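BUG: 3D viewer hangs when loading the predicted structure for this chain

Environment: internal workstation, default settings.
Expected: structure renders.
Actual: progress bar stalls at 90%.

Input used:
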Amino acid sequence: MKRMLLIFSHNLTAEQKEEGEENLSVKEFISLPNDLQSLWSQISPEGEIDEKAGFFIEWIKNHAEKGDFALIQGEFGMTFALVDWCLREGIVPVYSTTKRVYEQIEEDGKIVNRHVFRYVRFREYKRLYN
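Structure tokens produced before the viewer hung:
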């Protein structure tokens, strides 16, 4: 039974859940507990991330097995640290790709720019060269 750990600041969309179930054979989606979710959503730009990364790594160790997925998106340094750890441990790190749709409309003599991001698919983080 494949799981997907949700390590990101947003809610999983219906499209993401459907793709996880249909294309990745995910049977269970596991969200961060509230304390870690709060920490993930507010990674400080000050100081180092080593200790905080350890909290997330411990949580991953307790909830995933080799071959499970981890949806990881967030602050770049922390994301890199967790993706690197997952790759070494056999957890499959993925991220969501999106397509930006841009439209410019005129309302009441004003030009309004609108950007809509639409989910496209999950893509694996991969090392291209060893």
